[in-house]
Design a protein that fits this description.
The protein has 468 residues and is mainly alpha-helical. The protein is built from 21 helices and 6 strands. The protein has helices at residues 8-14, 27-33, 36-39, 43-59, 65-83, 96-108, 110-114, 121-157, 177-202, 221-228, 237-242, 245-272, 299-323, 337-357, 365-374, 379-388, 393-410, 419-423, 433-437, 439-445, 454-467; strands spanning 162-167, 170-176, 204-205, 232-233, 279-281, 361-363. The structure holds arginine (ARG).
């Protein structure tokens, strides 16, 4: 009887974990299970994590000091190789972690093989993602800040520009364009708060959890946490390697941010329409049509609105990915990365382009004023005027409703009705009514925190700037 020759040596040469396997992985399975194509973008975080781990191992006497020196030397070379595109990534080595570890071992020998002492890819990958996300959140917060600075500049330029405020997309009351822009500012202020909040919960160290149960070596997790700038430790090893709630939270914060930018985009698209013609967007942010020579399309805004959908999708993907998983780590979790990375890219790109585009937006005040005129925007001011003179608000509302009907019939705006005409609707109306019916009067009267008067808009900008 012929005996199958022992396959161990060649298999372990190929796969770090293959000692107990008797046949190689099929190509199909290799392709299905490998993640290096997308997780190699975490290489900096992976090396940072490994260096902190190695330093701790040496400090605790778990590996000799010379091994640490070898590991540091090897990693420095690997960094240089990756930065210059000289690193040979291999799908056979499955993921970013094994690719780097294998190269390290080739470069420095046994020291490289000792790096993984007291560690598992499970706590390693959880650490890498948290570091990656923390870095991404920091980038996002900077970009959000840059967008907000430019938004406040535009709001200041437009602090006294009257435009119609809408409800039901029908002209409602006069507001200033600056006030409208400050509504955008408030949305993004909460977005920034949310990302800072996600950062706190992301910034905890999983390393030390090892595969799932912790490790038998005398490790020092606080030391590693401090080395890597984590604010605390994941305090249960099973939870540390398995949960991706921080990534889900990140996608939730991203979905909300994109929802806000999608609403802004929708408004820009409407305002660019010639029926509105409220704003101009600098040509460099628009595109033309290949067939219609007259077209100028607000593509950036449309795409931001469109890309919001994919970020919502990523949130749903991650929630669904997590919901059926028993403790602790499952390979399902490898699927966390592509949605997460795409959410990072989409949010980052959207913020970057919006921060530039916002400076390329200018108002068209005449068109805004025309729209105000056609919409009887000061009707509420007339009702408030009558209420101040003692008429119950409901009666005032009715009297003004009749006045609007009359103005509509005559094809004029309320302030264009004569005093005699206005008196038909209420004897309380006097010549002082005209101050109230002007757009400027209407705006100036809303003079409290959160109101639209130009003074309040300027005060809000000052408050926002002092907080930045
Ligand atoms: N590439 C894997 C991931 O992204 C790393 C962890 C693999 N762990 C394991 N036990 N196979 O989740």
């Amino acid at each position: 009887m012929s005996q199958t020759p022992p396959t161990q040596p060649s298999l372990t040469a190929q796969y770090t974990w293959a000692a107990r396997f008797s046949e190689p992985m099929s190509d199909l399975v290799k392709r299905y299970t490998a993640s290096v194509n997308f997780d190699k973008r975490m290489w900096r975080q992976d090396i940072r994590g490994s260096l902190a781990h190695a330093k701790m191992l040496a400090k605790q006497g778990i590996i000799p000091a010379e091994d640490l020196a070898d590991i540091q030397r090897g990693m420095a070379q690997i960094i240089a190789e990756i930065e210059t595109d000289a690193f040979a990534w291999s799908r056979d080595l499955e993921d970013v972690h094994l690719n780097i570890e294998k190269r390290l071992t080739t470069l420095v020998g046994d020291a490289g093989k000792r790096l993984h002492t007291g560690r598992s890819r499970n706590d390693q990958v959880a650490t890498d993602i948290r570091l990656y996300l923390r870095d991404s959140i920091d980038d996002i917060l900077i970009l959000l800040g840059q967008f907000q600075v430019k938004l406040l500049d535009l709001a200041e330029r437009e602090a006294a520009t009257p435009m119609p405020g809408f409800t039901h997309l029908q002209v409602a009351q006069p507001i200033t364009f600056g006030h409208h822009l400050l509504a955008w500012f408030e949305m993004t202020r909460r977005d920034a708060e949310r990302f800072s909040d996600v950062r706190r919960r992301t910034n905890r160290l999983p390393l030390g959890a090892a595969a799932l149960a912790g490790t038998t070596y005398p490790i020092d997790r606080e030391f590693v946490a401090a080395e890597l700038g984590f604010e605390g430790l994941c305090e249960n090893s099973l939870d540390a390697v398995s949960d991706r709630d921080f990534a889900i939270e990140f996608c939730a914060a991203s979905a909300l941010l994109m929802m806000h930018f999608s609403r802004m985009s929708e408004e820009l698209v409407l305002w660019m329409n010639p029926r509105f013609a409220f704003v101009q967007i600098a040509d460099r942010f628009c595109t033309g049509s290949s067939i219609m020579p007259q077209k100028k399309n607000p593509d950036v805004a449309e795409l931001a609105r469109g890309k919001t959908g994919r970020v919502y999708g990523h949130l749903t993907a991650l929630l669904t990915l997590m919901k059926g998983q028993p403790l602790a780590y499952n390979k399902d979790n490898q699927e966390d990365k592509e949605p997460l990375f795409d959410a990072v890219d989409t949010v980052t790109d959207t913020l970057r382009i919006y921060a530039e585009m916002i400076s390329g937006i200018s108002s068209r005040p005449d068109n805004m004023r025309d729209a105000l005129r056609q919409g009887f925007a000061t009707a509420t001011d007339l009702a408030d005027y009558l209420t101040c003179k003692g008429l119950p608000f409901r009666d005032a509302h009715e009297a003004v409703g009749r006045a609007v009907r009359r103005a509509e019939k005559l094809g004029v705006d309320l302030p264009q009705l004569s005093l005699a005409e206005l008196k038909n609707f209420s004897p309380l109306i006097d010549v002082d009514v005209f101050a109230v019916l002007t757009v400027e009067g209407s705006l100036a009267a809303r003079n409290h925190i959160g109101g639209t008067s130009p003074d309040q808009v300027r005060a809000a900008i000052a408050r926002a700037r002092s907080r930045q």
